[in-house]
Amino acid sequence: MMGYALVEVVTDRQMGCVAAKQLWIAAVSADDAVGVAKVPHGWAARLSSADTLTAEQVDALNIRPGDAMDLGF
């Protein structure tokens, strides 16, 4: 399993009474994760405090080293 970091991507645009938020995975070290996540204009990224994924979950994503992707939730 490669190294990865979870990145929380947020905007101040409201969806109901909360800000819009996405969870991304970056297949890089935690130090580089925020820079690799190419977030939309007007959004901000920070390392997530969410629980980590299992090795099986990361492998199922088929993410390549150096890439970042939105996990869809």
What can you tell me about this protein's structure?
The protein is 19% helix and 38% strand. With 73 residues, it is of the alpha+beta class. The two termini are 22 Å apart. The model has no long low-confidence stretch (mean pLDDT 84).
Q: Summary?
A:
With 73 residues, this protein is α+β, with helices and mostly antiparallel strands. The chain is 19% helix and 38% strand.
Amino- and carboxy-terminal Cα gap: 22 Å
Basic shape: globular
Low-confidence stretches: none
Order of helices and strands: EEHEHE
Helical percent range? 10-25%
**In percent terms, what proportion of residues is strand?**
35-45%
Strand order of the largest sheet: 3-1-2-4
Helices and strands, with pairings:
Elements: E1 5-15, E2 18-26, H1 30-36, E3 43-47, H2 55-61, E4 68-70
Antiparallel strand pairs: 1-2, 1-3, 2-4
Name some characteristics of this structure:
73 residues; alpha+beta; 2 helices; 19% helix
